[in-house]
Amino acid sequence: MEASIQRKHFLDDLQVGQRFTSGTHRMDEAQILAFAGEFDPQGFHLDHEAAAASLFGGLAASGWHTAAITMKLLVGGGLPLAGGIIGAGGEISWPGPTRPDDVLRVVGEVVEIAPSRSKPDRGIVTMRCETRNQHDEVRQVLVAKLVVPRRPAQQEAAASDVLESV
Amino acid sequence: MEASIQRKHFLDDLQVGQRFTSGTHRMDEAQILAFAGEFDPQGFHLDHEAAAASLFGGLAASGWHTAAITMKLLVGGGLPLAGGIIGAGGEISWPGPTRPDDVLRVVGEVVEIAPSRSKPDRGIVTMRCETRNQHDEVRQVLVAKLVVPRRPAQQEAAASDVLESV
């Protein structure tokens, strides 16, 4: 069903196990240095020599930079949710650092869908988002809890019409 | 013991319940727009009108921006760890968004100290870091697992000397 790739998903459109793949972002050294200089000015993110002598064994992007690029990829079509991507929180880990010239993409999978009991117009969707590089190495795992709106009643009928006509 | 505020802490210097407070960062609208434009280009982070109509009810910084500023505050003296601040991962949540002109600071508390069994030169320290604004509202909670080196044997003796002379 190709239509589902293009349209924005309401909570009611999602299924556990459903997967999304983002576009890509090439993380070059200049970006790594700029982000680290502003937000995470530590030697292993800023200087080759210091990085070689560190736990990272070479220049490594800040984990928060990998997180920010992950968000950019999700917002840029990687996760087409109605209402946008609104995170309440989640768990994040970095199995290994992003390196200069890594080409990142995000593979997301729906883990849980929980309609809100108190707010009937929305729910919480738990997504496991793996940020991988061009070698398919996982550079970040984010298990995020997202606030996703439910489909308004009048739109439900319209969507069914579209699906029947496909 | 004022000396402990200035020097860098090894794993062996930390105690459960120990607290650290960072300096402050004023998050202005220009910073919010610049970060969102690059990493999280959604209406509620970029446009007052769109933000007013959204779940946020007004312009809100990206949660990843709050995370990045939190890291900046920790690196800038908020958490003086030997070896720098190296996160393996953690849990993050945003009880409410950072707003233009919020003045952020981070209050960190040591929650758990776990020397590594396989690597005798380091361990994992769990820190709960609350990022609060000038009204003491918590804008982010990060429970982070940090890799912290143990004090090398020869430095242990030297440090004892210093403490005895204080």
Written description of the protein model:
Chain A has 6 helices and 5 strands; from the N terminus they run H-E-H-H-H-H-E-E-E-E-H. The first copy, chain A, has 166 residues and is of the alpha+beta class. The first copy, chain A, has a 5-stranded antiparallel β-sheet with strand order 1-3-4-5-2. Chain A binds chain B through residues 35, 38-44, 54-55, 62-64, 67-69, 71-72, 75-76, 83-94, 141, 147, and chain B through 35, 38-44, 54-55, 62-64, 67-69, 71-72, 75-76, 83-94, 141, 147. Strand 2 (87-93) of chain A pairs antiparallel with strand 2 (87-93) of chain B, so a sheet runs across the interface.
Brief rundown of the structure:
Chain A is of the alpha+beta class. Chain A is built from 6 helices and 5 strands.
> Could you state the order of secondary-structure elements of chain A as H and E?
HEHHHHEEEEH
Strand order of the largest sheet of chain A: 1-3-4-5-2
Unreliable stretches of chain A, pLDDT < 50, 5 or more residues?
Answer: 1-5, 160-166
The total of beta strands of chain A comes to 5
N- and C-termini, Cα separation of chain A: 9 Å
Strand content of chain A: 25-35%
Rough shape of chain A? elongated
Largest sheet of chain A: 5 strands, antiparallel
Main interface: chain pair and counts: A-B, 34 and 34 residues
Please, how many helices of chain A?
6
Q: Indicate the structural class of chain A.
A: alpha+beta
Q: Please, what is the average pLDDT of chain A?
A: 91
Radius of gyration of chain A: 19 Å
Oligomer: homodimer
* Helix content percent band of chain A: 25-40%
